[in-house]
Amino acid sequence: MDKLASLLHTSPATAWMVVKVIIVFSAVMLLASVWTWVERRGSAMIQDRIGPNRAALFGKIRIIGLAQLLADGIKFFFKEDLVPAQANKGLFWLAPFLAFVPALMGFAIIPFGRSFVSGGVTYHLSVLDPGNGMGMLYPLAIGGMAVYGVLVAAWSSNNKWSILGGMRASATMVSYEIGISLAVIAIFMSANGYDPSEVIKAQGHTPWTWFVVRQPLGFLVFFTCMFAETNRLPFDFAEGESEIVAGFNTEYGSMKFSLLALAEYSHLMTASALIATLYFGGWQVPFVKDPTVMLSVASFVLKLLFFAWVFVWVRWTLPRFRYDQLMHLGWKVMLPLSMANLVFHAWRMSQGH
User: Fold this and answer.
1) Tell me, what DSSP letter sits at residue 238?
2) Which residues contact 311 (CB under 8 A, 6 or more apart)?
3) From CA 187, how far away is CA 291, in angstroms rounded?
4) CA distance readout (Å), 215 to 184, 193, 220
């Protein structure tokens, strides 16, 4: 501990990196946990119900059901942890972590506020600093790895419903990854770079210069594909409670089930942050050219929370698609649209626009 304290004292860059890692990952996990309550409360509002309101702190304090978070956490922690007799026990235990870690790590590259200078040192508000060579390719690659957690959970459970869910998850990923990639490539061309800081700078502080206005077709493709990427309705075929029980997590309970749920909501937060960064100016504040650091962070957080709520709103508004409709949408609608968007903006760039 003394060596660590000495290192932090002598190296501001190292100290700042440690602070960023703690703040960002703690904030994402906290938001993901709270969003389980937002999901339940939001669905109750949409369906004209009350929602969770029985759990209370110390038997009296009942704040719009927030104590339900603590009650659920205690319940999952003390529930009996069952493992199917025919399951691959090692992979069965490993799968929730394979799903959770990529969902959390995808946030590392995203700037959540403007950089600032103090004492002659530039501090960047992202876990990985700009110019590291990975850029926006990093969260796309990491997000694609999250499906391995689903596949491992499905296969290791040795359950037919789980395996069906895993097969659906892999087919969904293949169907939508191409559309997402082509939509993002069009942004890279317009921004003349693939670093998130360059993408945010290219959009500016005026809303009509954001990529959601300049590339509405690309935004439509990316936004739709994000629902499939995060296994959310109307594309949650990996779970499909109405036809395959609960899909890949059918055999999971206790803390392993809660970790899989936390992975889904962490992925939701990362997806919301990507939408805000790529199409809505990131931390840019509308009509404010040089916002303060705190104002830029507040702007980014508000955009993230808005899109996270849209995910909840859509889930409890639209019915699940049929599987053949999903494949048709992915290969015959989203892929041609993303190709058309890419070709159009490539032509515009060649004309000097």
Assistant:
1) T
2) 227, 230, 232, 268, 271, 272
3) 24
4) 10, 16, 9
Q: Give me the residues paired with residue 121 across strands.
A: 118
Angstrom distance (rounded) from CA 236 to CA 61:
36
Give the pLDDT band (50/70/90) at residue 4: very low
Domain boundaries, the chain: 83-350
Per-residue confidence (pLDDT) for residue 1, from 0 to 100: 45
pLDDT of residue 285: 92
- Tell me how far CA of residue 251 lies from CA of 70, 81, 82, 84, 325, in angstroms: 24, 11, 8, 7, 28
Amino acid at 12: P
Three-class secondary structure of residue 87 per DSSP: coil
Instruction: Of 24-38, 78-92, 218-232, 287-301, give the lowest mean pLDDT range.
Output: 78-92
Residue 116 pairs with which residues in a beta bridge?
123
The verdict on pTM exceeding 0.85 is yes
Q: Where are the beta strands (DSSP E) in the chain?
A: 116-118, 121-123
Residue type, 50: I
User: Alpha helix locations (H) across 193-334?
Assistant: 196-203, 211-214, 216-229, 241-244, 254-279, 293-315, 323-328
Burial class (CB in 10 A: 0-12, 13-18, 19+), 180: buried
* Length of the chain as a residue count: 353
Distances (CA, A) of 166 to 90, 142, 154, 176: 18, 18, 5, 16
Select from 144, 104, 324, 146 the least CA-distant residue to 235: 324
pLDDT of amino acid 60: 61
